[in-house]
Amino acid sequence: MFSTAIIVFREVLEAALVVAVVLAATQGLARRSRWIVGGIAAGLLGSLLVASLTQEISMAFAGVGQELFNAAILLTAVAMLAWHNIWMSRHASQLIAHLRQVGSHVSSGQLPIYFLATAVGLAVLREGSEVVLFTQGLAAGGSESLPMLWGAIVGLGAGLVLGALIYFGLVRIPTRHLFTVTGWLILLLAAGMAASAAGYLAQAGWLPVQPPLWNSSDLLSQHSVPGEVLHVLVGYQDRPTAIQLSFYLTTLVVIAVGMSLSRQRAPSINRQNASIH
For this UniProt entry, which segments traverse the membrane (predicted)? Predict the structure, then answer.
């Protein structure tokens, strides 16, 4: 029961943190619940599909299909989050000034909230599929079904509660600062995903396997609760390699430059509002 609870808690927490940041970033936007819930539902359905194809995925590409699958999901989510942040840099001030009119922007397709819904769905898909894989491993090792079920319930509840607490903490931030805070969180979240994708590509043999640059696991283990939270929110890794660090920094720089260029090309009304705020 304890092993299942820990596994489910970790995976649910990672998905819940992504959902919490996205919900906070879309605070006040019309139809956001429909898109986010749709993304979560699509992710859960995708997890069930992955569960039914676990054997085929794992054996694909000479036995590294699961690693490549995870890397593809992470890199796709990075692209979705990057585009959202660059778009928001151009329009954030306008959204703040005209928040009550945002519904029309969403319905006309100007606001790429579907990009965030896709990122949410991919996060749920990845974490859900990992829950399936890990619990299948525990079952294969002889764990009994009923204790595993209770462990899954406890882990699910704990992960959702902690994710909800972080969401309610974010939405207490004043609106004029909310887009800035969540924009930085999404930027760091995307960089962390890119670093994790590099790790999976190395496991698959598509990138060189390197020794870690440092080991801070004694100071803060990546598998502890604080380590998990920092891993999702800012990309913390206790044993990063040079390639993972380069993926992290490259993603940070590329998105930050894109945000800066987009902000410079923003309509004059946005810059005027930005100067006010």
Answer: 37-62, 68-88, 109-128, 148-171, 178-202, 242-261
CA atoms within 13 A on the CB side of 45: 6
Contacts of 246 (CB under 8 A, 6+ apart): 198
Cα first-last separation, the chain: 51
Average pLDDT over residues 242-257: 95
pLDDT band of residue 140 (cuts 50, 70, 90) is: low
Question: Which residue, 130, 137, 122, is CA-closest to 228?
Answer: 130
Is residue 148 a contact partner of residue 134, using CB atoms and an 8 Å limit?
no
Q: How far apart are CA 83 and CA 114, in angstroms?
A: 11
- Is there a contact between 37 and 116 (Cβ–Cβ < 8 Å)? no
Average pLDDT over residues 60-87: 82
Q: CA 85 to CA 267: how far, in whole Å?
A: 17
CA distances from 208 to 35, 45, 62, 200, 243 (A): 38, 34, 17, 11, 8
Tokens of 270: 């946005």
With bands split at pLDDT 50, 70 and 90, how would you rate the model's confidence at 104? very low
Element (H, E) at 225: helix 225-234
Distance CA 55, CA 140 (A): 14
Tokens 């995903």, located at residue: 193
Tell me the longest C-alpha to C-alpha distance in the chain. Answer: 65
Note the pLDDT tens digit of each residue in 174-193: 766 767 787 888 888 889 88
Please give the structure tokens belonging to residue 25.
């970033």
- Between residues 169 and 145, which one has the greater pLDDT? 169
- Count of helix runs (H) and strand runs (E) in the chain: 11, 0
